[in-house]
Give the backbone structure.
Amino acid sequence: MNKLQSVGLKSGAAALRHTVWAAAVALAGAVALAPAAQAQTPPSAGVAQARPVKLALIESLSGPFANTGEAVYRNIYWAMERVNARGGVQLPASSGGPRPLVLERYDSKGQNEEALSALRAAIDDGAQVILQGNSSSTAAVLIEAINKHNEREPNKRVLFLNYSAVDPILTNEKCSFWHFRFDAHADMRMAALMEVMREDKALKSVYLIGQDYSFGQAVLREAKKQLAAQRPDVAVVGEELHPIGRVKDFAPYAVKIKTSGAQAVVTGNWGNDLTLLVKAARDVGYEGSFYTFYGNALGAPAAIGDAGIGKVVAVADWLPNVPGAQSEAFYQSFRTRFPKPQDDYVHMRMQLMVEALAQSIERAGSTDVVAVARQMESANVQLAGQGGTMRAADHQFQQALAVGVMDKKGAPGVKFDVEGSGYGFRVVRQIAAAKAQQPHSCQMQRY
């Protein structure tokens, strides 16, 4: 099995450190990784002895959204295994030669203050790259804190790689030279959903519901904007924001949705807030559709069951049933690495993010944060038939998007289900990167 070096817990940040060693062997022409049990040693003694590049994952690893944090950890861990399997990041001898990537975990407990405490601990521990994404409000406070830190302590600067915080403001008004986003932001995702909603001529009414924080607010705002522009015939019959991570019983919300007569629900909810919402809707007999950002996993398909067939729509940077042999091999290799059904939530964008980091370090020829950031601005990565490029103007990654509709495993286009639920997502629309991109208002200070 992989060698994990546990270094203990950090007070106030609960940081569990893990050194990532080789557990993956790339096969020619595809990303088909060997089972973890086949890789028992570091790629080379030289890499093993080299000073590692430290990455710090700051996420909810406890509390109501712990499952989302653990899903992120698995994805990033796996991506780093791939880099270390090929010898780590390749640097010249003058910069210390090849160096492995090391991942350390810091539990934010879903709280911004805990995330800031974790950031301070990570920097004190020597982290050069901060990873976070499962909250746009947390991402915003981290951007501000990192901006101030990097100005005050230029010898201890850090990069911030964001894989899921999709409030558009983060690469617009709050854009930063130190921050790079690898997920499509909310406006991009909404535009992709509109590709499907535009063709649903029977749709005449929708209910908008979301989590009451910056991202949830942005989703509802953009939904109204794009509906008015592209489907003015569709009435918004309800609009609601609810506390994030604190609602245990969504039945009252589900009753209001059903009573409104809405033919569809549009929501950016994620984690338990989505699973509980769709389950409550099923329980009260709601028969409308769900247009979602994250309805393709973390319990949502199993929660809604047969009622979601043909009715739950999800948008993502990639879905397991995206056509193509390389994509299929990529997904099967993840399931080999993490075979438990509850661990089945793979994100292509997180794999591309780690590849972009490795590429940028190698192009910079060092781990100097400014040099790496400059190279990251032109990152261009490919993996398993997918890929993308970083837009230097606002540090928003540009990639294709996929929209899928829920169906039973085995139905046409649904070879793979999710989480052993028996339900998967048939890809009904693939949007090229050039079409998925959106304008920006970033005015960035560069270094």
Remarks:
- The chain has a mean pLDDT of 89.
